[in-house]
Request: fold
Amino acid sequence: LAAARDGDKAALGRLLSLVERGGEQAKAVGRLTIGPSAAVDQVIGLTGAPGTGKSTLTDRLIGLARQQGTVGVLAVDPSSPLSGGAILGDRVRMPGHALDDGVFIRSMATRGHHGGLALAAAGAIRLLAAAGRAVVLVETVGVGQVEVEIAGAADTTVVVVNPGWGDAVQASKAGLLEVADVFVVNKADRHGADQARQDLDRVLDLGVGSSGWRPPVLMAVASTGRGVEDVWAAIRGHRDQLEATGQLTARRNQQLVDETGRLLVRLVEQDVRALDGGRRWQQITEAVAARRLDPHEAAAELLELAGQ
Amino acid sequence: LAAARDGDKAALGRLLSLVERGGEQAKAVGRLTIGPSAAVDQVIGLTGAPGTGKSTLTDRLIGLARQQGTVGVLAVDPSSPLSGGAILGDRVRMPGHALDDGVFIRSMATRGHHGGLALAAAGAIRLLAAAGRAVVLVETVGVGQVEVEIAGAADTTVVVVNPGWGDAVQASKAGLLEVADVFVVNKADRHGADQARQDLDRVLDLGVGSSGWRPPVLMAVASTGRGVEDVWAAIRGHRDQLEATGQLTARRNQQLVDETGRLLVRLVEQDVRALDGGRRWQQITEAVAARRLDPHEAAAELLELAGQ
Reply:
């Protein structure tokens, strides 16, 4: 971790791999990351449907985030060009950042976490923070509960939409309005951008969104950079508001406590699965779903098995 | 339970008290309720800000729900006239139902569950189902995470709003759009009802809401009964769609598995608190929030303590 803090990207990469692997190894890394992670200036989640230009916007925001210090980027999006360890892709798309020692970009596989992607992402965010990154950017494709959960691990969540968004969202069963702190209508040079903005403003005037904060709606063309500075200003504005109202600390603390509860369930699951290769675990969960076993009894039984 | 199934309301009331008490007693009742609860025809959640007329609407819907068989009503709303064990209130407001043996109405205290209100409500819903109630209506005041969680335990969630809703919702930081399967603009004889409906339709056209189901927006005046039959038809329509797409069973099964996970965390909390009156529990959760302890370590420590 000391090496990672000094800017050794390979060391940071190895630690992240341990976090992704979960279990004892993630725990050992977690032990290193207590304390300093509170020092991170801002954790920013970027989410939206595939093809909305999240990655291009992330790319632009990295440059602006560098004003705060070093930057860590986590791409939890199988469709992201930042993702899949595409080193060539990074170089082509981000010539400025590939040579910048202050920017660390890492993709996170969306599979192989045994359902624990959100936990792995939370651990990875904490590691990047502990490694001294001032700003952590997390890109997720905004569909499904896990992605919303990951967005919940950020201080500020940016939801990226496009003109004509209605169709895209309807298709993707989004839960995006709930988690958005900042809206960006990207590709705003296209037809229907003003309509998309008006629609969003109308929705937001109805009161959906985080408490005490009316999410602003920004227009941007990430591919040319138009409007991106305003997006950054809005992201920073949200951080200022969180800090001024004491919500920054409260949010982060609650996230940690919630994570502990989720880890507890996962530990029990691991213990019980380890007993007999998962047979007993499957029997119990199936019995609950089939209403042959009450959740109270199932929980007690699982806890007892975990203690063996 | 056999007595409760035969229509003995006092027996059903005693069982509900045990569920509310939690712990071993709730577990014992839970053991009785496995299996038959799958037979419930529809669990309907009604939620909305205080003063929107949820209780009056619930009252009207009880009569229509009686077409399906017996009805159980759970009022988890401190401001509800159905709530607080207000027998006189019930008689005054529901002259038809007070004398109807097929209708069982129970209020649930919102305090004293040690943060486990959602779990208590889930257990109560399952008990009413196991006691043979064909339809279970759950009324909650739609503010806060717990209320949204309870709404999530229903097959169909009805969100009640009023003309001029924008202000009310903005004030109450609602998370209601996400959970709504059916919207009702109640008090629709007031000024601004059409506007409220148009606003909602516009929001819903943006794609917010459950997958594959565009929540309809109904106009009603619950106090006179106007539009209530259409509301009931929409509620039943949602049930038909859930069944046709296989989501009814899938939703219910997932709810049970999720509940098992939450109960597991609660059992561990109870065990650890019991060790020393809660000191160790407080130390650990505070250490996590203060970042002196990693969530992985905290979870492992709690699990070990619970096994003692």
Notes: The radius of gyration of chain B is 20 Å. Chain B touches chain A through 66 residues (CB under 8 Å). Residues 83-93, 167-174 of chain B have pLDDT under 50 and may be disordered. DSSP finds 15 helices and seven strands in chain B.
